[in-house]
Design goal:
CATH topology of the largest domain: N-terminal domain of MutM-like DNA repair proteins
Strand content: 15-25%
CATH class of the largest domain: Alpha Beta
Number of helices: 7
Shape: globular
Distance between the termini: 28 Å
Oligomer: single chain
CATH architecture of the largest domain: Alpha-Beta Barrel
Structural class: alpha+beta
Number of strands: 10
CATH superfamily of the largest domain: MutM-like, N-terminal
Number of domains: 2
Length: 269
DNA sequence: AGATATTCCTGGAGGC
DNA sequence: TGCCTCCAGGAATATC
């Protein structure tokens, strides 16, 4: 399941193939993912030159010299394949460069999305307008303090709120809370300032380590089978229900907001 | 304000 | 082996 590190790794891998290239051909192999593809997607992209790639929250951005930005979301099963030997049932969007390289957006469960947005209007694009700061670099304990003060929801729920932090998903919310030794059930407004400082450090740390691991695992950001963004992940608590924690406690699973939360009952307080 | 439910979708896991 | 059920996930939206 792609989270921010996988999106970042994907964007870096895509950039190596398509950045600076002219788009020679676009093939929409179905009409929609979660939403319909922009009907004029092929027309607006074909012939355009890719001027750069980026990421906002868990969205990947492909900028073109026509003032458009292709915005993609990987949902839970989406990934790009580089120079696939052949196209399969779940390769929904194909982009071919002027060099003849191919990248295909593959998404079996079709939770992903593809939109084309005027680059100048990206900050005002509905999905981006209310987003909080990026969790990699812009986050401070003071910001968390300001946002959490007076809030009675759990700190885990707050971390999942994209208006407070953009792009932090279930896995890395769990991992960051573990790293900062915070009980995910704790009322957000009651987390100590010291813990918030630790959290503001833990969040970019766990994400940064995952991105670094992805880059090294995939070597050059492309796996041997041409897939971008999926790599072996080693989590401290996520998916490790029943496993021992280093403190002598046991990793426990609970459900918060219909999402699994994994944490150590003993050392997260 | 905040919790909960629903929708989208299907591969994979587990049960029998 | 083969059916069946259920779960996973992010975001938008609705309802309490």
């Amino acid at each position: 399941m792609p989270e921010l590190p996988e999106v970042e790794t994907t964007v870096r891998g895509l950039a190596k193939v398509i950045d600076g290239r002219r788009i020679a051909r676009v093939e929409m192999r179905r009409e929609d993912l979660r939403r319909a593809f922009p009907p004029d997607l092929g027309q607006r992209l074909t012939g355009a030159r890719v001027t750069g790639l980026g990421r906002r929250a868990k969205y990947g951005l492909i900028h073109t010299d026509r003032g458009d930005t292709l915005v993609f979301h990987l949902g839970m099963s989406g990934h790009w394949r580089v120079d696939p030997a052949e196209l399969g049932q779940h390769d929904h969007l194909l982009i071919v460069t002027d060099e003849g390289r191919q990248v295909a957006l593959n998404d079996a469960r079709r939770f992903g999305s593809v939109d084309l947005v005027c680059s100048d209007e990206l900050p005002q694009w509905p999905a981006f307008r209310a987003l909080g700061p990026e969790p990699t670099g812009e986050l401070t304990g003071a910001w968390l303090k300001q946002k959490f003060t007076g809030r009675k929801a759990s700190v885990k729920a707050m971390l999942m709120d994209q208006r407070i932090i953009a792009g932090l998903g279930n896995i890395y919310a769990c991992e960051a809370l573990y790293r900062a030794r915070i009980d995910p059930r704790k009322v957000a407004g009651k987390v100590s300032r010291a813990k918030l400082e630790a959290l503001a450090e833990a969040i970019p740390a766990v994400l940064g380590e995952a991105i670094a691991a992805g880059g090294s695992t995939l070597r050059d950001f492309v796996s041997p089978d041409g897939e971008l963004g999926y790599f072996a992940k080693e989590f401290a608590v996520y998916g490790r229900e029943g496993h021992p924690c280093g403190c002598g406690g046991t990793v426990t699973r609970i459900v918060q907001g219909a999402r699994s939360t994994f944490f150590c009952l003993k050392c997260q307080t």
